[in-house]
């Protein structure tokens, strides 16, 4: 298993995914440890200063006016974490929590937060031991950082609260830390605040969402190509010179994928002669596929640029500047991330919507160009894929609701001290649900298009789409009388979600963009 070095510079998105999803180990560089120690000395100096300093010798949020005596400051930090570990609701996925811890560790490694090296090392130890704090769904407003989720992680390195171990069991943190030889951290001045004041949860979910959406945008081109082929559509509209008339980069990439996926298709060749094909233009859901999927790609790239800048950030309040000042700031506000999370949810809903429209065309005898109603084996006796499209429609309707922005819905908190918040955590949570929905919608289109293509026999699909269908058929049988459909849909979902559909196509076409 790979090891990711955590230094004073930014992590890459690929490194975040490797740690969060693949369990890669982490290690702080010597440079990072030195930077952490250097700024800790600045905070240690302020601890003896009779002048109040936020987070060092004061309360927090609306209680920042309270000066805390020296003998109570360790308790101040412990109380901060215990009180802020107030999440409620379903448990958050392990990969999200691992990303959360990794990104907080990355900020600690910049040397801008004032924690001790041992505190940062404790996060690395938890990640490497596959100890995952239990974090709950609700509790973050995406401002002053992802406070409650991060507090649950900080609670774990204190040896308190619940964690999941490598086998999946929930145990108490103190026992697990002892079993792994990890010494619980006794927080000192500023450390509690430094562990919870970041945008790490929403950023981690954005980064993983972008990885998923890059794969799904290619999958959407595959399913669109299969639908064009199975519905006897035209590939002429995807020509490079036509696409160049509107120089949107995502659109060009999507159209190039469609040309590669449809290359050499006997089905397409069977109706290329205008005398044999009387349709002048295909429906929008076929003809405009690269315009929609391309816009999704461009949205992904915009969001990736925001994520890249955030990966290079040191988000904390107060922060230790390179010249040694300790300054309050508002960099914990999640607006930049929240906006693009919401933007992506809009793009996801639209990509799923056009996919569902193509599926519906396959099932309608009036629009599917000679295929049986609902692609049924014996229409009337059999219902074919009728209700699979119902599932798609239900998901698309849900995706439209999830596309409503979270970032415009600020609710003031902390006695109006924190009077405008980003709701970025909520935006990230709904994007994750939206990505799952898109995966399912594309899987149903793929299942439908594969059956439609096979019902065109003896005409054969092109090499790329044939490879996708062959890979699908390893787990999902082809056309025939009605059978228990739900397990087949779930296997198609796994086929799409795992990237197997993309790999099957790329084995023929080469890398798709």
Strand numbers in spatial order across the main sheet: 4-6-7
State the oligomer: single chain
Sequence of secondary-structure elements = EHEHHEHHEEHEEHHHHHHHHEEHHHHHH
Point out poorly predicted stretches: none
Write down the overall geometry: elongated
SS-derived structural category: mainly alpha
Describe the sheet with the most strands.
3 strands, antiparallel
| CATH-derived architecture of the largest domain | Up-down Bundle
Q: Give the helix tally.
A: 20
Number of strands: 9
The radius of gyration is 26 Å
CATH class of the largest domain: Mainly Alpha
Assess the beta-strand content as a share of residues. Answer: 5-15%
What's the CATH topology name of the largest domain? Fumarase C, Chain A, domain 2
At the fourth level of CATH, the homologous superfamily of the largest domain is Fumarase/aspartase (Central domain)
Helix content: 55-70%
Mean pLDDT across every amino acid position: 95
Keywords: Histidine metabolism, Lyase
Main location: cytoplasm
GO molecular function: histidine ammonia-lyase activity
InterPro entries: Aromatic_Lyase, Fumarase/histidase_N, HutH, L-Aspartase-like, Phe/His_NH3-lyase_AS
Describe this structure in words.
This protein is mainly alpha-helical. The protein folds into 2 domains: 3-198, Fumarase C, Chain B, domain 1 (Orthogonal Bundle), CATH 1.10.275; 205-509, Fumarase C, Chain A, domain 2, CATH 1.20.200.10. Helix content is 55%, strand content 5%. The protein contains 20 helices and 9 strands. It has helices at 13-22, 30-47, 73-84, 94-109, 117-128, 147-157, 173-179, 191-196, 200-230, 240-244, 249-262, 266-270, 284-287, 289-311, 335-363, 386-402, 424-454, 463-472, 486-497, 500-509, and strands at 3-6, 25-28, 88-91, 132-133, 136-138, 162-164, 170-172, 319-320, 326-327. The strands form 4 sheets. It has a 3-stranded antiparallel beta sheet. Strands 1-2 form a two-stranded parallel sheet. Helix 9 (200-230) crosses helix 11 (249-262), helix 11 packs across helix 14 and helix 15 packs antiparallel against helix 16 (386-402). The radius of gyration is 26 Å and the shape is elongated. The two termini are 28 Å apart. The mean pLDDT is 95.
């Amino acid at each position: 298993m790979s090891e990711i070095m955590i230094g004073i510079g930014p992590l890459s998105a690929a490194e975040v995914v490797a740690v969060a999803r693949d369990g890669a180990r982490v290690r702080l560089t010597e440079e990072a440890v030195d930077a952490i120690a250097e700024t800790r000395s600045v905070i240690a100096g302020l601890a003896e200063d009779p002048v109040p300093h936020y987070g060092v010798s004061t309360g927090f949020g609306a209680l920042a006016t309270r000066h805390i005596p020296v003998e109570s400051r360790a308790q101040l930090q412990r109380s901060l974490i215990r009180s802020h570990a107030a999440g409620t609701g379903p448990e958050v996925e392990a990969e999200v929590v691992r990303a959360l811890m990794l990104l907080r560790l990355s900020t600690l490694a910049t040397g801008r937060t004032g924690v001790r090296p041992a505190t940062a090392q404790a996060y690395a130890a938890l990640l490497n031991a596959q100890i995952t704090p239990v974090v709950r769904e609700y509790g973050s407003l995406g401002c002053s950082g992802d406070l409650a989720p991060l507090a649950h992680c900080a609670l774990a390195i204190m040896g308190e609260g619940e964690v999941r171990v490598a086998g999946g069991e929930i145990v108490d943190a103190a026992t697990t830390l002892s079993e792994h030889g990890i010494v619980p951290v006794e927080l000192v001045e500023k450390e509690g605040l430094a562990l919870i004041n970041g945008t790490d949860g929403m950023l981690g979910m954005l980064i993983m969402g972008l990885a998923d959406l890059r794969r799904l945008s290619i999958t959407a081109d595959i399913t669109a190509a299969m639908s064009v082929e199975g519905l006897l559509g035209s590939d002429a509209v995807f020509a490079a010179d036509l696409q160049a008339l509107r120089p949107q980069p995502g659109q060009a990439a999507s159209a190039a994928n469609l040309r590669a996926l449809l290359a050499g298709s006997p089905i397409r060749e069977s109706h290329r002669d205008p005398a044999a094909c009387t349709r002048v233009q295909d429906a929008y859901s076929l003809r405009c596929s690269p315009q929609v999927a391309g816009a999704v790609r461009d949205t992904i790239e915009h969001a990736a640029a925001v994520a890249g800048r955030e990966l290079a950030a040191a988000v904390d309040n107060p922060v230790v500047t390179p010249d040694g000042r300790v300054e309050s700031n508002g960099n914990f506000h999640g607006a930049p991330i929240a906006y693009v999370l919401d933007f992506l949810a809009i793009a996801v809903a639209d990509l799923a919507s056009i996919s569902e429209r193509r599926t519906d065309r396959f099932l309608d005898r009036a629009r599917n160009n000679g295929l049986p109603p609902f692609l049924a084996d014996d229409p009337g006796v059999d219902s074919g894929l009728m209700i699979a499209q119902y599932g798609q429609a239900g998901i698309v309707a849900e995706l439209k609701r999830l596309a409503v922005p979270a970032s415009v819905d600020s609710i003031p908190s902390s006695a109006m001290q924190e009077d405008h918040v980003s709701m970025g955590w909520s935006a990230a949570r709904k994007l994750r649900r939206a990505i799952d929905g898109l995966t399912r919608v594309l899987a149903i289109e793929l299942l439908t298009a594969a059956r439609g293509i096979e019902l065109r026999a003896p005409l054969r699909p092109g090499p790329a789409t044939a490879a996708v269908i062959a890979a699908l058929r390893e787990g999902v049988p082809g056309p025939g009388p009605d059978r228990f459909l739900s397990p087949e849909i779930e296997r198609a979902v796994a086929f799409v979600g795992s990237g197997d559909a993309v790999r099957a196509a790329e084995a023929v076409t080469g890398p798709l963009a």
